[in-house]
Design a protein that fits this description.
This protein folds into two domains: about 150 residues, Alpha-D-Glucose-1,6-Bisphosphate, Chain A, domain 4, CATH 3.30.530.20; about 160 residues, Multidrug-efflux Transporter 1 Regulator Bmrr, Chain A (Alpha-Beta Barrel), CATH 3.20.80. The chain has a nine-stranded mixed sheet, with helices on one face. The protein has seven helices and 18 strands.
Length: about 375
């Protein structure tokens, strides 16, 4: 019995010693890891710059129990943010600095602890050298929990390495897997919409669409307006190869809605038109292939472009529908003039002379798109 008491006392003293040791340890940490990502610097930067992509590669999806994400109106660029709830606590992250294709700085709070995260992008042989660094501090309870798993620095190092590995794997497959199918001639019906227009460089078009579209969706929710279909883009300038391009990001509505004068959000209507439809399955970065194959089809099949019509891209499946970029779908509609087919009526026997039969024209059958 006496030995048992001594053992309990030793165990108590040992426990107290462990607690004192943990308590006196610094709660600060700083970890940096790098990896070669097999993708262009532009591609890697754009993918990380949008928080909606993080579910496909970031280790928090695997490591934080019961995590659910909440995305704000802006999820990319400076000011972009998102938050999450989990069994381990709630968190928030915001982008505070962006230098295009060079670096990103973010601030985060998780379960009361704050940290900063920095991404650095550099061209290298075989792709992009991506450096992920973070520093912050943890409270006593977090120090206690991490102590028995090798310490906070080891845990964060493992998480960063897993994140970089997942990112490389995702970009290597998801962004490179795509297909383009030219569906052929189709008919676009008339529709009403609310839009926000802007002009930008062709290179930054994708990024600007990602910024404007969530804000437009938020506008619908804030004003309790029902969306009548998938978001789409109207090309106000039709030269896809131009350095500067003007577009309108649109969301369809059931009826024409009057907007406040002077607002940067306006309403409009698109007239029905005959078009050539093509579908891209995969990331939007392959948009150039979509346009190229569609224009080749128009030339090879002797269709005449209708420059009075509207060039339209519809985002039928996006990151809001499915996280995998290889499964996204973009539909392109290029307006053309309908073809005519000469039809000669079947000759009939008659003893009475008749006038020369005239040639009757009929339009080709088209697929009707809602």
């Amino acid at each position: 019995m006496q030995i048992f008491k001594y053992l309990l006392l030793l165990l108590l003293l040992f426990s107290i010693g462990i607690l004192v040791y943990i308590f006196t340890q610094k709660g600060d940490y700083q970890v940096t890891r790098s990896q070669i990502i097999k993708a262009s610097r532009f591609t890697v930067f754009e993918y990380i710059n949008d928080y909606k992509n993080w579910e496909t590669f970031h280790s928090m999806k695997q490591n934080i129990s019961g995590i659910t994400f909440d995305y704000k109106a802006q999820t990319s660029g400076k000011g972009g943010s998102f938050s999450w709830k989990s069994n381990d606590g709630d968190g928030f992250m915001k982008t505070v600095f962006v230098k295009d294709n060079d670096s990103i700085a973010q601030k985060t709070t998780f379960d009361g602890s704050k940290a900063v995260v920095n991404w650095k992008f550099k061209d290298t042989i075989g792709g992009t050298k991506l450096t992920y660094s973070t520093k912050g501090n943890i409270n006593f309870l977090q120090k206690f929990n991490t102590f028995f798993h090798g310490g906070i620095n080891k845990i964060i190092s493992n998480e960063i390495e897993r994140t970089l590995y997942n990112l490389n794997k995702t970009l290597e497959f998801e962004l490179k897997t795509f297909s383009v199918k030219v569906n052929g001639v189709a008919q676009r019906n008339a529709s009403y919409f609310i839009k926000q227009s802007f002009t930008c460089t062709n290179k930054s078009l994708s990024r600007n669409i990602k910024i404007v579209m969530p804000k437009l969706v938020y506008f619908f929710k804030k004003n309790n307006i029902q969306m009548a279909g998938k978001p789409f883009v109207i090309y106000e300038s039709t030269d896809i190869n131009s350095d500067v391009i003007s577009v309108s990001v649109c969301i369809p509505t059931q009826q024409l809605i009057s907007m406040t004068e002077g607002s940067d959000v306006t309403s409009g209507e698109i007239e029905p038109f005959t078009c050539i439809k093509a579908t891209l399955k995969g990331d939007y970065s392959h948009r150039a292939d979509l346009w190229k194959k569609t224009q080749q089809y128009i030339v090879e099949n002797n269709y005449q472009p209708n420059f009075a019509g509207k060039y339209v891209e519809i985002y039928s499946k996006t990151i809001d529908d499915i996280k995998n970029p290889s499964k996204w779908e973009t539909e392109l509609y290029i307006p053309v003039f309908p073809k005519t087919i000469a039809v000669t009526p079947t000759a009939t026997t008659s003893t009475i002379p008749s006038e020369t039969n005239s040639i009757r024209s009929t339009t080709t059958q088209t697929e009707e798109i809602p």
